[in-house]
């Protein structure tokens, strides 16, 4: 039976204290499902949302979180293909209109009426969360709910970004921010897609993880090495075929074209506050560099990213903490101290 109250992490407005307290269990509307969230990943986006880093307002009294994996406990009267007992996930895109030109073209993240979990609607930092039935991720029952949680944002986002990079099997992808949550999964998806990886991040823990656990071929420490020179020297002087920018700092967004190969693509994914992307015009033109953004993924990208995981190809390490410990996880994230992803157990 579904309780009437549950625990959540909630804050009034940006930078207000995050309170771990009891709130009502929401009721699904006709086209919605209610998911008993078992585990939720903590994405750097959740920290940006709390801090109000971006030029897009968050809802007041927000329950954050958008990597929630759990079990469906109730469905609205119009929902046909999701059943009570199914495993399902709350992802960043909670809902979209289905009718605009972007939705019609399966570019639903670009829908102007999109609902964003843990940002414009309540997300997964609670024990029971609502998602539109058309958008909740379908999770096969044999997949562990803790390990799949980070795939619901980080995994599908980086899988999509790698596709957007237009790199081919055998080519080299530089991953900037490779030791973080998105980064660790990028290294794994890149490998599964046949790419060679140069990981860029800092510190011995992330270096060890990237090289010995995730399978990157090279590691460049941005705090010690000359990143541009080192990536070029590792790629015969030409640079990486693609660069995936995941860092939460501006500098890489201003130098990535310099270690990207001619004809290559720089894919911007990280969203540091108030940052700008820039590149010198002359080399960008005469080396035919592409600079583009990539924003989460559509429902097919989601299911494909889950398929890679289901096939045993994605094994990025994650640490489990309690839902009640969210503020401590945010602190470690802010300090850049997390190698990989934290996943919260919502029962504690
Ligand atoms: O759809 C999207 N575009 C999307 C989806 C999900 C998340 C975008 N994001 C954004 C987040 O909002 C955030 O801005 O991607 C960014 C990365 O999220 P994350 O992976 O969850 O953050 P993290 O775990 O804190 O990892 C960031 C890593 O960047 C490294 C840090 O050391 C850390 O490992 N880093 C930094 I800060 N500066 C760096 C630099 N100069 C750097 N790595 C290389 N060079
Ligand atoms: Zn995210």
Automatic annotation (TrEMBL):
GO CC aspect terms: cytoplasm
EC number: 1.1.1.1
Cofactor(s) named in the record: Zn(2+)
GO terms, molecular function: alcohol dehydrogenase (NAD+) activity; zinc ion binding
SUPFAM superfamilies linked to this entry: GroES-like, NAD(P)-binding Rossmann-fold domains
InterPro entries: ADH-like_C, ADH-like_N, ADH_Zn_CS, ER, GroES-like_sf, NAD(P)-bd_dom_sf
Alphabetized PANTHER family for the sequence: ALCOHOL DEHYDROGENASE 1-RELATED
Keyword terms of this UniProt record: Metal-binding, NAD, Oxidoreductase, Zinc
Name of the protein described by the UniProt record: alcohol dehydrogenase
Family in the record: Belongs to the zinc-containing alcohol dehydrogenase family.
Superkingdom, natural source: Eukaryota
Keyword Oxidoreductase: yes
Enzyme type, top EC level: oxidoreductase
Organism: Choiromyces venosus 120613-1
Record's signal peptide: none
Domain Enoyl reductase (ER) stretches: 13-344
